[in-house]
Amino acid sequence: MSATDRLEELGLTLPQVPTPAAAYQPFATVGEFAFTAGQLPVVDGALPRTGKLGSDLSTDEGARLARTAALNVLAVAAAAFDGLDAVRVVKVTVFVASDPTFTEQHLVANGASELLGDVLGDQGVHARSAVGVASLPKDAPVEVEAVLVRAEPT
Fold it and tell me: H/E element holding 15?
């Protein structure tokens, strides 16, 4: 089953590529690789939630927001590779705005990783870092970036 078919089966639609919030591009390509800019969990141009994990949001809420940010990563991937069917995820970094006592960044990051696997199948299996940070742009709770490579369509 193709990534496009899986996306449809999951009842998901790729959003428009989010507009950069500063002086950068949504992605840069080098050869067959694409490097995404960090994607916030914006929906229709707005953050549905702000704040820090562990004080303002639960781990489950953070995972749902990471999933949304990963959907935005897929929108960027589709723009970089003219569709999702030739996208392979190599590495994902998930930044989690965290209260100093919060230690479940890896569980928040699962929201992004699971979405990528659900949509891309084996092409979505990746290496990952989950990093707790003091704050993110616009007081976003999570930010997701990825390294992608063009692969044989599935």
Answer: none
Check if CATH label 3.40.720.10 holds for domain 3-14+27-150.
no
Helix, strand, coil abundance in the chain, percent, nearest 5: 35, 25, 40
Would you list the domain boundaries of the chain?
3-14+27-150
Q: Which amino acid, one-letter code, is at 59? A: T
The pTM of the full predicted model, rounded to 2 decimals, is 0.96
**How would DSSP label each residue in 56-84?**
TB-HHHHHHHHHHHHHHHHHHHHHHHTSS
Look at the block and give the residue holding tokens 């989010």.
18
Contact 33, 148 (CB under 8 A): yes
Residues 92-105 have pLDDT tens digits of: 999 999 999 999 99
Instruction: Please say whether the dihedral angle defined by the alpha carbons of residues 33, 40, 111 and 86, taken in this order, is positive or negative.
Output: negative
Between CA 139 and CA 47 the distance in angstroms is 9
C-alpha dist (Å) from residue 89 to 39, 76, 123, 127: 15, 12, 6, 9
